[in-house]
């Protein structure tokens, strides 16, 4: 999917919501455990109930890898279902990959070709030659960690290196890489006070923003400083939506939570 198609979808749905599909078998409604593939059954119900309220889904691969082959199969069924039934939806494999060049190419093939995700998250720590192999894929997006939502972000990312915070170095340097137009960035909603500075460096890039809901980030603050002329934000909520209920009504409860966020977004877009 191109960035223009994503922007069109945002404007059509009046939503820049991304729903995180972080499936934990201990948290899903127990009646689903009788299904042949409980993870996929859960995802399918959530997707069918919420697709008109969001523009992206983000399965975090950890929640699938943890269940071995069954988990990976459920991930494959989920992305295939999304691509076949809801091709207008942007898909994110939250895998936080990145390695020496030839290995990164294989990661990119796994997520862009075999699983056919629109985007994958990567860690910048290994630098240019670990990220450029992802950027080489046309109409695919590489979402690089910039300033993460967790407390540990302050261990390295905000430390000053050669007179500048490390996350700023990451943003500035990445702009010089080949095919950098295929980059998006992760910035945590819990770091709202940093968005204005970040927008100075990357005014036009899309930002994937996790951390609203369960982690306490505030949507209004993020939008105030992080939004650009094309909206430029994908706000992710995972647990706050998908675990709204652990009963038979779980999909409707998730849709209700998603609608609360979508309505807030529509108001912001109409301002
Ligand atoms: O900085 C980051 C980067 C990634 N994440 C991931 O986003 C979701 C957030 O889930 P919630 O349940 O809405 O808190 C999860 O997959 C994280 O691994 C992040 O939170 N922060």
TrEMBL record:
The active site is at residue 96. Pathway: Pyrimidine metabolism; UMP biosynthesis via de novo pathway; UMP from orotate: step 2/2. It catalyses: orotidine 5'-phosphate + H(+) = UMP + CO2. CDD domains: OMP_decarboxylase_like. Keywords: Coiled coil, Decarboxylase, Lyase, Pyrimidine biosynthesis. The keyword DNA damage does not apply. It holds the Pfam family OMPdecase. Residues 16-254 form the Orotidine 5'-phosphate decarboxylase domain. Its EC number is 4.1.1.23. GO terms for molecular function: orotidine-5'-phosphate decarboxylase activity. Gene3D superfamilies: Aldolase class I. Residues 244-271 form a coiled coil. Belongs to the OMP decarboxylase family. Type 2 subfamily. This is Orotidine 5'-phosphate decarboxylase. It comes from Thalassobellus suaedae.
